């Protein structure tokens, strides 16, 4: 089963909370037809199911912490397998959030050909998340949790970017710009893939 996805095009989409990962992924789906898998969305589906596991996940996410690696990796892998026959490529949004997650992904699934680094200032991310929180219904879009998510991003996730820079696959886009201008930078990075 996993064989089928080994040769698939895999793009990691990494950036701070509220940087605009989901926004850009939607546009990539529309233009390139890739399959968008957001680890956060997969987790929120489990939470919404009301299962015991969902309740445990909800408690972790509400605190702005990372859920256990195996849980999120299994969810992504299952979702990839389900789409393996029809997918032109996978956008893995919100994963890896720490270097270990990247290493485990490569062991169990495959190697990314590109890491899209969606970059915005902390101040911008906070402002966007507070605004998103007015309508998102997300229990982690509040001031206290946002601060924890940002701290964790700088501590655990930024090292992921340096790790893949060493491999030469990081393309940074300036997400301070308007959505369409960010997307034009995103398109340049994707068009450069073979
Ligand atoms: N380039 C941008 N300029 C202005 N607002 C943006 C931009 N990108 C995203 N946003 C807004 O910021 C918020 C967070 O974006 P989202 O894509 O959900 O980020 P993430 O998935 O990285 O948390 C959303 O409300 C979105 O509409
Ligand atoms: N790869 C991952 N590993 C561990 N926890 C994760 C995870 N992806 C998401 N989560 C959990 C912790 C995050 O604070 C929460 C929301 O994630 P998200 O939807 O990707 O947020 P955002 O798009 O605002 O950056 O879900
Ligand atoms: Mg998102």
TrEMBL record:
Main location (coarse class): cytoplasm
User: What is the reaction catalyzed?
Assistant: dAMP + ATP = dADP + ADP; AMP + ATP = 2 ADP; UDP + ATP = UTP + ADP; thiamine diphosphate + ADP = thiamine triphosphate + AMP
Annotated stretches, region: NMPbind: 38-67
Q: Which GO terms describe its cellular component?
A: cytoplasm
Q: Which parts of the sequence bind ATP?
A: 18-23, 132, 177
Q: Which residues bind AMP?
A: 39, 44, 65-67, 94-97, 101, 138, 149
Q: Which UniProt keywords apply?
A: ATP-binding, Cytoplasm, Kinase, Nucleotide-binding, Transferase
Tell me the lineage of the source organism: Eukaryota, Metazoa, Chordata, Craniata, Vertebrata
The name of this protein is Adenylate kinase isoenzyme 1
Could you tell me the superkingdom of the organism this chain comes from?
A: Eukaryota
Q: Where in the cell is it found?
A: Cytoplasm
Q: Which GO terms describe its molecular function?
A: AMP kinase activity; ATP binding; nucleoside diphosphate kinase activity
Entry's family note: Belongs to the adenylate kinase family. AK1 subfamily.
General function of this protein: Catalyzes the reversible transfer of the terminal phosphate group between ATP and AMP. Also displays broad nucleoside diphosphate kinase activity. Plays an important role in cellular energy homeostasis and in adenine nucleotide metabolism. Also catalyzes at a very low rate the synthesis of thiamine triphosphate (ThTP) from thiamine diphosphate (ThDP) and ADP.
Q: Region LID: which residues?
A: 131-141
Q: What Gene3D superfamilies would the database entry show? A: P-loop containing nucleotide triphosphate hydrolases (3.40.50.300)
